[in-house]
Amino acid sequence: MFGITCGRCATLPLSGAHVCLYEDGTIVTEEFFPTLPDNCELVLLSRDQTWSGVVCDIGRLLNTDRHTDGLIEAAKGLISDEKSFKRRKVLTDLLQNLEDRSDLESREEDEDWFTGVDVRFKTKSAYMKYNCESRIRGYMKEVDNATNGIQKAKVKAEFLKTSKCLGEMLKNDKYNGKYFDRTEKESGRLCTKEGWFTCQGSFEQKLCHSLHSINPYGSRESRIVFSTWNLDHRWILPVPGVVKTAANQTCFLFPLFCRIEKKRTIIPALLEALQTRKTTDINLNYFYQMLFTRENLKLVHIVCHKKGVHNLTCDTKKMFRTSKNARKAKGDTKGKKKRLT
């Protein structure tokens, strides 16, 4: 530790030096100096230095690994003595992040993370990929189960064809397990390369105002908690509110938010389309995107998972094949992977 003693600010020997309060970074002026209490903590800064109070210390703490072990032990000790629930919560969250082992990947490196995980999974990324695949497979199962309520044999036969085509498309895309796999390219995954996921907010929001985030790669507890997050069918679309004035002019007032929901919108729309059309008339790419891709999927914290009444229907202009997307489908078949439409 280094320090300097003076009777007043003017006696500071350094050119351009200034003093501020350690607590909040308030600049200590000549007039303010005599009013300071005894044993007040001050920070001496050079001309170009700044101090934002304890926030600076917190920032330095979060950006260094030098004293991690000591911080963990200190946090454990404080938790055992702390009576304030709020402070215990902060310390517990800090401890959980300090003990983060997200940099470890294999079962041999982090056996605790794999507790309860099938032995066939050797890496965290492999399991997380499977976890996402399982969720997407569940959506496909809901599509298949919809056949049970179809009474007309002809419609049921067409729906089975459609369901089979969607299943093949999903299989070709490996059930989009890449969304949870941190080893995938950035454009394909929903997380950072370290494994951090951020809540995308409830269906009426563009962003999560609570800033929910989690790294299921960090610990077994985080992996389990992540299972409560929803990969939900919510599509946010800013729709302007419209009103007619006395002069019969259209005015756009404010944005509304809409969503396309799986059970109550997408699957029923597909069933309705097949009442009078064949599978070959359906734009399967559109329904595939709405059911199984990020086009209509949002990753949300359980608190942000709201099941409100839906207010958006499928786009009838995109539900059926046109000459344009028919040509596109024909072009797609020339590639290595056949794309069903």
TrEMBL record:
GO biological process: apoptotic DNA fragmentation
Keyword Membrane: no
Entries under Pfam families matching the protein: CIDE-N, DFF40
GO CC list: cytoplasm; nucleus
SUPFAM superfamilies: CAD & PB1 domains (SSF54277), His-Me finger endonucleases (SSF54060)
Residue ranges constituting the CIDE-N domain according to the UniProt record: 1-53
PANTHER family according to UniProt: CASPASE-ACTIVATED DNASE (PTHR13067)
The protein's name: DFFB
Annotated organism of origin: Poeciliopsis prolifica
